[in-house]
Amino acid sequence: MNATMTGMSEADRRRELGGFLRARREALSPAAAGLHGGGARRRTPGLRREEVAQLGGLSVTWYTWIEQGRRDVSVSAAALDRLAGALRLDRAGRAYLFELAGRRDPEAGAAEDAAVPEAVLAAVAAIACPAYLLDRRWTARAWNAAAARLFTGWLDGAADRNLLRFLFLAPGARGLIVDWEGRARRVAAEFHAACGPHLDDPALRALVGELRRRSGDFARFWDAYGVLGREGGMRSFRHPEQGLLHYEQVTFEPAGRPDLTLTMLIGPGTGPG
């Protein structure tokens, strides 16, 4: 859940949802919503409740209760999908609507599999320190030359770009990563937390199943149900050519792409000049 909503009560969220829908309804003109011939005389410039209900395939009473924040009203993901379309919500508005309602957006998977924007790819390539971009299955979608030099066996030409397959299945990972078991246990717990909302994704479930079959360590860590949020901190590597390396890890989320995570490893000589 969005950090701005974690402290909200259910009543607060229902009121926020109702207020958001009402504001969007009042801001949308009939013409913009595809309604014509609705009459020129209106008390408000936006849509009426009955018009939104009609466009969203809901009863007027039901939609009115949603706007009023009624406690006994539950909105399905399918109904939210229709409301998002009726109100012409953009990606941010749609995400906010589903977040307030506590539902998973059925279109989220398609958006998350979209191509990485060219500007994001260029930004990753321009970063001086090792940097890579992971999708929600923790497969690298972009990385720079410094990351390819550091992660031998993963980003330096290997066929498989998935971080978990590298960490648990590649022979060289245990030698490269200092305190491999501690880091692997932590990564498994972070992945467990990150993929919780997406366990209905067949590809993600197949990845977890494959790793459990092929790695006893992953199965052991996964079945322990450790759940941890991603955090920064020191990361150390024993590189076959560069020797012992220490970095401070930081992560970011590109704007508008919550499915992507940018990781940077800050080391000596990579700060501002």
TrEMBL record:
<dbReference type="Pfam" id="PF13560">
    <property type="entry name" value="HTH_31"/>
</dbReference>
<dbReference type="InterPro" id="IPR010982">
    <property type="entry name" value="Lambda_DNA-bd_dom_sf"/>
</dbReference>
<feature type="domain" description="HTH cro/C1-type">
    <location>
        <begin position="20"/>
        <end position="94"/>
    </location>
</feature>
<dbReference type="InterPro" id="IPR041413">
    <property type="entry name" value="MLTR_LBD"/>
</dbReference>
<dbReference type="Pfam" id="PF17765">
    <property type="entry name" value="MLTR_LBD"/>
</dbReference>
<protein>
    <submittedName>
        <fullName>XRE family transcriptional regulator</fullName>
    </submittedName>
</protein>
<dbReference type="GO" id="GO:0003677">
    <property type="term" value="F:DNA binding"/>
</dbReference>
<dbReference type="InterPro" id="IPR001387">
    <property type="entry name" value="Cro/C1-type_HTH"/>
</dbReference>
